[in-house]
Amino acid sequence: MTRLCQSIPDSNAALKEQMKTAVRLEPGVLTYYAVADKKKPASITILEIYADSAAYQAHILTPHFLKYKKTVEHMVKKLKLEDVDLIGIALKPTK
């Protein structure tokens, strides 16, 4: 997902809270990354990985996601969703 927002600090704070809550509470939310374009910090790319389509559908109905959506609806100027298939993940092992 790519979004373009108006109020960067408020939008990013709401996004971080939503991401942490989703990963903590929802077993089907596997990964959440959010990055800002260095030259255009209002342009945010979010990578979300779910266990399956049902996990995503459940996620968008959760109270924390609905709160996030309502919080940022007046801040987000443009939103582009892309449905992709995961090819692979490479992570360093945790200790």
TrEMBL record:
<keyword id="KW-0503">Monooxygenase</keyword>
<keyword id="KW-0560">Oxidoreductase</keyword>
<feature type="domain" description="ABM">
    <location>
        <begin position="1"/>
        <end position="90"/>
    </location>
</feature>
<dbReference type="Pfam" id="PF03992">
    <property type="entry name" value="ABM"/>
</dbReference>
<dbReference type="InterPro" id="IPR007138">
    <property type="entry name" value="ABM_dom"/>
</dbReference>
<protein>
    <submittedName>
        <fullName>Quinol monooxygenase YgiN</fullName>
    </submittedName>
</protein>
<dbReference type="InterPro" id="IPR050744">
    <property type="entry name" value="AI-2_Isomerase_LsrG"/>
</dbReference>
<dbReference type="InterPro" id="IPR011008">
    <property type="entry name" value="Dimeric_a/b-barrel"/>
</dbReference>
<dbReference type="GO" id="GO:0004497">
    <property type="term" value="F:monooxygenase activity"/>
</dbReference>
